[in-house]
């Protein structure tokens, strides 16, 4: 017969906060990381649109430490556009990844949802949420994690887990282990039943009552012992690890792409992944052109309708151009993100770079990033001016600077 | 009497400090940079100060409201919508500067610290009767700057030479002017350079005179000069008003400690140190040639030299911070860490040594 049509679903997206996000500088100096554009849309827009595909979605909550006013405009615009209520909730103090969810449990349970999705905003993936929900219903546990196989060398940057190949039950979970446990990792996308709140509450009260012997890494053991407050509950160490193997948690494996958007360089890579996803799901969003009336477009490219591109320019692959940008004659753009109001003058070249709001790239100048170099992709902050014929290679330039000499592998404050 | 302070731009050379506050509000010798200038102007009878800003004007105005009340001086902002150079702002602020009284007005560059001998400058200006007076200061390497070529006895300026290849003189523009209102008529409302366009015109008409600045001078727009500037400032304070300096068994040389700061036992502080309001310096700490911004904490046994510790930052126990390390706001250096010239942006934790000068974002 299938699921009850009355069962509502609520989605919670964790967006983080300002002081924690220093890895996203200098772009995060001007805009909260969740609002940084990836493939032409704010980062948080991608999980939000994915949530729209969940049947009976009642509400989306964004939970973070940013000031309310930083999200006010975005939240009201997106609620209107997608016709689903989106609300930003500010955490007053850190509660941990699970504690944050618990802190707002009353609001979350207001719609009496049967299921609650928890997503991390800086995850880049195909978000197979309806499929996860269906699988979760079949498993009958209190939670299901989205998981993916990664290369064994990179696995220890994430939460490694072991799943039963037949039942998909989560058998073992460990966060950033020192030795190899498994090449299956936690994607940071979960679906829970409301029993999760009981599980979190139990952790809190247990911590209050007894001293818990927990296995710590050798590094942690040498640190001065700090008392963790009772209401600080981490999803990985405090919920997933202890509940693994107890027939409560299950896994759903995705075979699509998955990345974490931790650094500005990754935002360029993830932009590429989302642009290629648009090619499949909504190709009308992407730009095209053959150099006759409009510029030549190669591969997956997003161009905002207000941007002006000269017909002799050649754009792509993997380029996102935001509102009111101007691209002059003979410009070549490859693998880059061009933000609002940027001006790129004649015959300039931008490749593997992010060009910040209102910046200008002079004639015959070149902004180039090299992925594996010390600083990686070139990032120009807000209102940076690169003068004619200057070359900027693998460098990071903070806002309001003018470059009149070429630079390489440098951070310009 | 009126004064114009050219505040201008983004203060990028003083990053990471200017990522937290606009440059004029960054503390120098335990006082916001611009307050040094405003107080000196008030002392010679200036009753209105106009600041020309093109960045973060609201932050400036909020701070200045308190100053207005405390000092009983009027402070207004003149907003540049585009950078107006070094003379354009005067034309922009014309209505505020030219009030029909005919009195000359001061123009100061906000990055400059000195003894601000404004009274002497007013007398000099009246004596020569010319249209404009400019302070000049002697430097060792004049070719790095714009040199003012002048008659030694009268101070009458002949010309300006920008970065001269051959020696023409050793006096450069100190960024302090006293101008008659008629000067504003000579400035068009567009980005203009006072040295390249306005002053040469006045000099050609024999109306520009230069006075050699007595005492010290420093442009503290970048960290190295900020630290040197503090040494010069404290040196001057020792000569003029030694009671303001801090003394004690743990103090050596010129040291300025705010009365709300706490210093532990067995420390050795100085020379050339400024410790701001609310700072805590625990026992056994060695500080030399450094500035500790308000609210910062230096933990036991640490050693800090030739560096700037940003607002509310902490330096861990036994940490060693030296060689132009600049910690931005809310930076926390763990115990036993060594920083050799690290430049650290705000809200960071330093968990590993910085062995070579570099930027931590």
TrEMBL record, chain A:
UniProt superkingdom: Eukaryota
Domain Nucleotidyl transferase: 11-209
The Mannose-1-phosphate guanyltransferase C-terminal domain, residue ranges: 297-412
Annotated SUPFAM superfamilies: Nucleotide-diphospho-sugar transferases
Transmembrane segments: none
Family membership noted in the UniProt record: Belongs to the transferase hexapeptide repeat family.
The name this protein goes by in its record: Nucleotidyl transferase domain-containing protein
Species per Swiss-Prot/TrEMBL record: Brassica napus
Automatic annotation (TrEMBL), chain B:
Residue ranges of domain Mannose-1-phosphate guanyltransferase C-terminal in the record: 251-360
SUPFAM superfamilies, sorted: Nucleotide-diphospho-sugar transferases
InterPro entries (UniProt xref): GMPPB_C, GMPPB_N, Mannose-1P_guanyltransferase, NTP_transferase_dom, Nucleotide-diphossugar_trans
E.C. number: 2.7.7.13
Pathway: Nucleotide-sugar biosynthesis; GDP-alpha-D-mannose biosynthesis; GDP-alpha-D-mannose from alpha-D-mannose 1-phosphate (GTP route): step 1/1
Occurrences of domain Nucleotidyl transferase (ranges): 2-233
First-level EC class: transferase
Similarity field: Belongs to the transferase hexapeptide repeat family.
Protein name: mannose-1-phosphate guanylyltransferase
Organism: Brassica napus
């Amino acid at each position: 017969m299938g699921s009850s049509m009355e069962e509502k679903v609520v989605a919670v997206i964790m967006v983080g906060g300002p002081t924690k996000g220093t890895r996203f500088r200098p772009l995060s100096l001007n805009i909260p990381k969740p609002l940084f554009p990836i493939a032409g849309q704010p980062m948080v827009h991608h999980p939000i649109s994915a949530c729209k595909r969940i049947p009976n979605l009642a509400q989306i909550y964004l939970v973070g430490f940013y000031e309310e006013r930083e999200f006010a405009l975005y939240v009201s615009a997106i609620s209107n556009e997608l016709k689903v209520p989106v609300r930003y909730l500010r955490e007053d103090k850190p509660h941990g990844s699970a504690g944050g969810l618990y802190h707002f449990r009353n609001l979350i349970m207001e719609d009496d949802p049967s299921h609650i999705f928890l997503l991390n905003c800086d995850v880049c993936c195909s978000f197979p949420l309806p499929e996860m929900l269906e699988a979760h219903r079949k498993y009958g546990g209190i939670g299901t994690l989205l998981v993916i196989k990664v290369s064994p060398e990179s696995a220890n940057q994430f939460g490694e887990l072991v799943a039963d190949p037949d039942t998909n039950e989560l058998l073992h979970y460990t966060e950033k282990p020192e030795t190899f446990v498994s090449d299956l990792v936690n994607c940071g996308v979960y679906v829970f039943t409301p029993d999760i709140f009981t599980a979190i509450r139990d952790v809190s009260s247990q911590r209050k009552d007894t001293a818990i012997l927990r296995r710590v890494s050798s590094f942690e053991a040498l640190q001065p012992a700090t008392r963790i407050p009772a209401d600080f509950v981490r999803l990985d160490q405090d919920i997933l690890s202890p509940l693994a193997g107890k027939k409560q948690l299950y896994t759903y494996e995705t075979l699509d792409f998955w990345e974490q958007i931790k650094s500005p360089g990754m935002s360029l890579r993830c932009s590429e992944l989302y642009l290629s996803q648009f090619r499949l799901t909504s190709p009308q969003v992407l730009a095209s052109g053959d150099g006759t009336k409009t510029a030549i477009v190669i591969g997956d490219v997003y161009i905002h309708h207000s941007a002006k591109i000269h017909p002799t320019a050649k754009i792509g692959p993997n380029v996102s151009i935001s509102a009111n940008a101007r691209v002059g004659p003979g410009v070549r753009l490859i693998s880059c993100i061009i933000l609002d109001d940027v001006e790129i003058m004649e015959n300039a070249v931008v490749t593997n770079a992010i060009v910040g709001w209102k910046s200008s790239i002079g004639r015959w100048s070149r902004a180039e990033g090299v992925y594996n170099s010390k600083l990686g992709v070139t990032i120009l902050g807000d209102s940076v001016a690169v003068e004619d014929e200057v070359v900027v290679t693998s460098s990071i330039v903070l806002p309001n600077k003018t470059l009149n000499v070429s630079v390489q592998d440098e951070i310009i404050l | 009497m009126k004064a114009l302070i050219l505040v201008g731009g983004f203060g990028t050379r003083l990053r990471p400090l200017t990522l937290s506050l606009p440059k004029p509000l960054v503390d120098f010798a335990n006082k916001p940079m611009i307050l040094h200038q405003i107080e000196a102007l008030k002392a010679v009878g200036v009753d209105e100060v106009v600041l020309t800003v093109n960045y973060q004007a609201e932050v400036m105005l909020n701070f200045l409201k308190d100053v207005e009340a405390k000092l009983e001086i009027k402070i207004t902002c003149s907003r540049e919508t585009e950078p107006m150079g070094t003379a354009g702002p005067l034309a922009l602020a014309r209505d505020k500067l030219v009030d029909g009284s005919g009195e000359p007005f001061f123009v100061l560059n906000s990055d400059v610290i000195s003894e601000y001998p404004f009274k002497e400058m007013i007398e000099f200006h009246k004596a020569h009767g010319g249209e404009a007076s400019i302070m000049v200061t002697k430097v060792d390497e004049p070719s790095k700057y714009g040199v003012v070529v002048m008659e030694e006895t009268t101070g009458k300026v002949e010309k300006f030479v920008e970065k001269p290849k051959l020696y023409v003189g050793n006096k450069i523009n100190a960024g302090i002017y006293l101008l008659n209102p008629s000067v504003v008529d000579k400035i068009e409302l567009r980005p203009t350079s006072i040295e390249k366009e306005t002053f040469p015109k006045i000099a050609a008409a024999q109306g520009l005179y230069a006075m050699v600045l007595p005492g010290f001078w420093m442009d503290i727009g970048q960290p190295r000069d900020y630290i040197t500037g503090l040494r010069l400032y404290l040196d001057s304070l020792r000569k003029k008003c030694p009671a303001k300096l801090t003394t004690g068994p743990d103090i050596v040389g010129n040291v300025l400690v705010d009365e709300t700061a706490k210093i532990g036992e067995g420390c050795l502080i100085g020379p050339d140190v400024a410790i701001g309001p609310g700072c805590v310096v625990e026992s056994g700490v060695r500080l030399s040639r450094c500035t500790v911004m308000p609210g910062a904490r230096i933990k036991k046994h640490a050693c800090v030299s030739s560096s700037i510790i940003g607002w509310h930052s902490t330096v861990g126990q036994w940490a060693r911070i030296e060689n132009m390390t600049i910690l931005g706001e809310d930076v926390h250096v763990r115990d036993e860490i060594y920083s050799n010239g690290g430049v650290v942006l705000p809200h960071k934790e330093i968990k590993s040594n910085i062995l070579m000068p570099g930027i931590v974002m």
